[in-house]
Amino acid sequence: MRVKVISRSTDDFTRERSQDLQRVFRNYDPNLRPQEKAVEYVRALNAAKLDKIFARPFMGAMDGHRDAISCMAKNPNYLKGIFSGSMDGEIRLWDVASRRTVCEFPGHQGAVRGLTVSTDGRILVSCGIDSTVRLWNVPQPSVLESEGTSNGSEKPLAVFTGNDAFRAVDHQWGGNIFATAGARVDIWDHNRSQPVNTFEWGTSTVVSVRFNPGEPKLLASSGSDRNIVLYDLRMSSPAKKIIMMTRTNSISWNPMEPMNFTAANEDCNCYSYDSRKLGEAKCVHKDHVSAVMDIDYSPTGREFVTGSYDRTVRIYPYNGGHSREIYHTKRMQRVFCVKFSCDATYVISGSDDFNLRLWKAKASEQLGVLLPRERKKHDYNEAVKNRYKHLPDVKRIVRHRHLPLPIFKAHALRRAMAESERRKQERVRIHSGPASVQKKPLRQRRIIQQVD
User: Fold this and answer.
1) What share of the chain is helix, strand, coil (3-state, %, to 5)?
2) H helices present in 372-441, as ranges
């Protein structure tokens, strides 16, 4: 008789230390697991439900301003520092970790409309409706780490005076040049008290300006006459211009795809454009029910955050038409400025109720140090959710959001108006001659004209 003995080495299943995990041997033959898909579907369903249970996006509020917050700026050299400017001319530096004011920068006589920090994190540039641009020395990180608040005796390094009120400011990536927006676009140098260059196209007021992160000589601006203009500092005149139906309040470039930018518009939508082809938007991002006031991209370039007049903050994927997240509180009023943190983990919003609010970029994310097993479990839950996200039950749970009643009603009203307009245009097309009515896609419909 022939006997076959099953044997194995003890080294293959014995732990080296008592803290080690037991080794588990698995056979991945699919024939041995006929219910594998059903089990994974239940796990995806449970993972989606757990995300809703643990969704606690609001981290805390930072109060101290005595008027509405009008602008914010990140310090690219220090993760925990955030600057804010208010309508009463006050500028504050906050430590986001402890949610306290580190120091104040007094000096502006009116509303602060723009803040920006140099790429090396040493110079803060502010501008306001008092027609001044002020340069400030940013405190060292050791000051931020110390306890207590500064006595507010910081003095500006330089004060530049213009002829008109300033609406926005932005610093060049990796240089000493910054741009201001007002009656025109002015280009300034740290060491000069007068603009080194001026761009003007039309008679409108420029409300926002942004330098391109990949090409330092390129910048974009938006004006009150509904235009979006591209400038090249190597040229003596603006390069391109498009005119839309409604005004653009803010612009943000995608840091990972520097040829693309997204514009926050008064018509409740955001429009992503390719700077090489401005005649058509790459994507239209919907869901807000009032004017979008500010926009900022995540450092990863995969999503951006918007703040709106409808008192909500939304996070969009860079190529998605609808938001993946909406944040709101009962006390938060109109949101005028939003920023992603430099590590893409948090979102900071500034609103009309004198407060800055700190949110998690992922509402159900577990903060703190994760064990390897915990991280592996989170990654597995995300993988099964992505695998079964197209199924009705998983999709319904993932997409569901509780909305304030006024926003819910405004959504329903906007849907009814859009459907009515669609029916009207369809009837006009049916009762017109062949090819006499051209149907434009939404990505082109809001653009009136492109000027080169």
Assistant:
1) 20, 35, 50
2) 372-387, 392-399, 405-430
- The whole-angstrom separation of Cα 336 and Cα 352 is 7
Residue-wise pLDDT tens digits, 374-412: 999 999 999 999 999 999 999 999 999 999 999 999 999
User: Is the torsion defined by CA of 339, 81, 118, 121 positive or negative?
Assistant: negative
What sign does the dihedral 374-379-384-386 (CA atoms) show? positive
Helix (H) or strand (E) holding 358: strand 355-360
Distance separating alpha carbons of residues 339 and 71, to the nearest angstrom: 10
Residue 355: strand pairing partners: 63
- Coil, strand, or helix at residue 72? strand
Q: Which region holds residue 378: left if phi is over 0, alpha if psi is between -120 and 50, else beta? A: alpha
DSSP-derived secondary structure letter, 400: -
DSSP letter string, 241-303: EEEESS-EEEEEE-SSSTTEEEEEETTS-EEEEETTBTTS-SEEE---SS-EEEEEE-TTSSE
Neighbouring C-alpha atoms within 13 Å toward the C-beta of 179: 27
Tens of pLDDT, residues 314-349: 999 999 999 999 999 999 999 999 999 999 999 999
